[in-house]
Protein 1
Amino acid sequence: MDYIRQSIHRYTPLMGVEPIEDVLVVEVRYRIYLNDQFLESVFCTPSNLEELIVGHLAIKKIITSYYDITRLVIEDENIYVHTCRTSINNTSTATEEHAEVYVKPEEIIYLMDKHLRSSKLHQLTGGVHLMGIATQEGIIAAREDIGRHNAVDKIYGYCLKNQVECRDKIFLSSGRVTHEIIQKLSAMGLKVVISRAAVTSLARTVADQAGITVVGFARGERFNIYSHPYRINSDNSR
């Protein structure tokens, strides 16, 4: 279960302090053991854990393919991973190095609206980040977590498990875009990022250097383009 209902107290000017029932996002600490050695702990929402581990290890370049994992077992709050790096593939799922992607403004508006509506947990609690991967026609997968980085890792893990090519896809985010997020998305091979929230100055710099188009504040029928605007096709562009 990704959320629980608990009794809390709420203050309002009309009623003062009163007991109510609220919905809280579940946060769990998992200990990761790699080849029988403790690697690190992660604090996350307890869903799609295999995807989280696959994406996390790939981003850290511990594995280069989903098939480098020979065994993955989750026991209580411990995750045991055994790997054997036999793959010669890059961590990207790309089959074509220079695949390109272009997006129309109406597609950006459509995708962000669908993205934000895709998570019951996000709507119920407001306490998770929601990340997704999509084509111009629709969302392929969406994942949620208390941590932005965890949610990105889950999406990457999904792509690696399901052989989803990233370079010609669109990444969707409900949260702030920082340079660390851009670095992760660059490692995945993504070229277009759309977020409902703000973009930091360093994220813009890194995205510009990496050739990534970053769209921020995608709300309603408006959005800002922070880097490489040529991928956003509009008949009204000037």
Note: The two ends are 49 Å apart (CA to CA).
Protein 2
Amino acid sequence: TTPPPPPPPPVRAVQPPDTREADIAIEREKKRLEQEKKAREQQLEREKRERERKEDERRDRLEQEKKERLQKEREKEREREKEKEQREKQLAEQKKAEQDKQKKLAEDRRKADEAAKRKSEAETKQLAEQREANLRRMQGMAGATGGENATGSAQRSAGPSGSYGDRITAKVRPNIVFPDAIDGNPLTDVEVRASPDGTIVGIRIVKSSGNKAWDEAVVRALQKTDTLPRDVDGRIHPSLVIGFKPKN
């Protein structure tokens, strides 16, 4: 007979694997990931708040700069307005001062013209009186007897001789320096005062020719002449009015 087969080997029970360490590792990894996620979220939140803070600061700074810029512009505008008002005030004051100045100048000219007119009238009157007096003296001289025993006042106070003016002119004219051309033949009447020896001690224009250069040339010539000639009777007349023309 065939022997019976050997019995099968005993079946060993399969033990389930130990997953505790894996679970612990998984749990740890899960916590780590959660912590990292939380840390990232916190970091992102901090960064967000920082960005918002910086943005707020930027807006505040821009707003402050805008306010300061507007304030400066307003101050500049006020300063410009103030300067404009000052310029307008200054111009108004200058205009008024100029008007007052012109008014005063006009008044001064009017007074000067009136004074010059009065002076001219007085000089003309004085010249006429001087000529009249000279004429009377000459007439008195012509009417005197001229004798050795003559005692009349006409002889003693007689005026210059008829040729005395020509004698003076002849002495003065060479000293007149006047190269300028002149229209017409204007007359300058000059009062000449002399000391007893004939020295000229005073020169005064009593009537201008209207040409200042000619008047001054006559005065310079008299100053250069220095002394007057004696009249035909040997006398020196203390005061005379003599006329000078450029074209005698």
Note: The mean pLDDT is 82.
Protein 3
Amino acid sequence: MNPLGWTTSRPRVDNVYVPDNLRTRLVDAGVRLLESEGQGGLTIRAVTREAGVSHGAPRRYFPTLSALCAAVARVGLVDIGVALDRATQQSTSPQEALNAIADAYVDFAARRPAMFALIFRHDLLEGSGENLRLTSRPLFEALIAAVGAVAPENPQFTALRLWTSVHGIAALNSTHAFEPVTDLSAVTELTRRAVRDVIADATEPGT
């Protein structure tokens, strides 16, 4: 069950997920390399070596590094959707769901910083042919629905404000930028206050 519409399944190849499919093997290898070595380790040559295939094998699916990175980023978007859906399912109220969504977003960035960074490398991913909007747009639509359950007046704008606020916290935390000045408990408090302040502004009379 997925009431808010978060994406909850891994991308499929030709509408059928086949574990031994070459494209799937290459993407899975790319995900492993990204997570273990960072974006600098994500090259077509490294992926072919990790997948155990010839150097020319990826050409049919990924003629450029941008195309490969976009396919890997799509996996990350789906995984974010799974994390947000899980957070929502465990919540008992709309307000609690928003807090859980924000916490899950920050947590994903902290646990998988390289994937989180790649997802938003629009300069690298644009023109890849992967059409990531088909995967990313439903995530934002689901956030709008979650926000609308708490602040029904102009939920799209409120969701955009909430996303930008929480994304800033997630991005800074994923690069350990907070560590010299504060600890993890402060990051959690910042996230909760971001949600509270955005929703308070949206529900205040006259706004």
Note: Confidence is low (pLDDT under 50) at residues 11-19.
